[in-house]
Amino acid sequence: MAGRFRRQSHADSRRRPIRHHSLRLPGLGRVTISHRPPPTAPTPAADQGPAAALRNPRDRTHWIIFSPGALTRAKDYPELLGALTAAGAAVLTLDYDWPKLFAGDAAELAKPMRAARRLERGGLPARGLAEHGLPAPLPRRRGRKAPPLRILGYSLGGWMLSAGFAEHRHGQPLELDLLGASNLREPWQPPSRRRQRVRLLAGTEDGVIDPKALEQLAASFATDVEWLDGVSHFGLLADAVGAANFRARDRTTRLTRRQCAERIARQLLHAPEPA
Predict the structure, then answer these.
(1) Which pTM does this prediction carry?
(2) Around 70, how many Cα atoms within 13 Å sit in the side-chain half-sphere?
(3) Which of 13, 190, 191, 258 could bond 165 through an S-S bridge, CB–CB 3.0 to 4.6 Å?
(4) Could you report the per-residue pLDDT of 136-145, keeping only the tens digit for each?
């Protein structure tokens, strides 16, 4: 990805710089992979924040496939990508051909599930990842629980994930996290709970979602809505991003974009896993 975002680096005294790599992958097109390189020396325990258990990529790397909201790209989510990678995740952000997606193009709708298959089968170009200093996708380790593979769909990027619910999976269970989405692409059927877990996340200040429809989704998935205090629908995005008619429906939040992102990342990566 050309421009400032590709060279962008976020760092402070407690965090390693974030790196963004723009790659073109067969079957997925352009994607952006964001991560933080492992430290060159062990980090003193006193300098580790609340995400210490997740921050060592050599030990446990969480791969997240990010399906962004309508008409947005990875460059529109610096705070969210920063918060997720600070917690030890490598994030693969999809770059949709939006006119095709709006027209219901099957190839565009299939990108999230196709990316998941590529990751779990080692289908990403390992040599290319290594050359960029990226962690290997979903490493298998004896005696340790495999890191979870997640697809995070935000707004329209979550609405479309239902296109993959009927897919028969033979690999590890997949977690589908719908953020700020209260309806799904019709027609749809709930996925098999043995292979696909669905989580519903929404901000308490989200004025775009339909609360009743969201509760109906929760009942369909036999789960609860995970409410994020103070987070609004567009809280992650700069003021110039997003359709004016939708922004007019959203509520004002006291949180900054970074605070919204950190609350989402904390809930997503630190919530207890199901028994």
Answers:
(1) 0.85
(2) 17
(3) 191
(4) 666 554 445 6
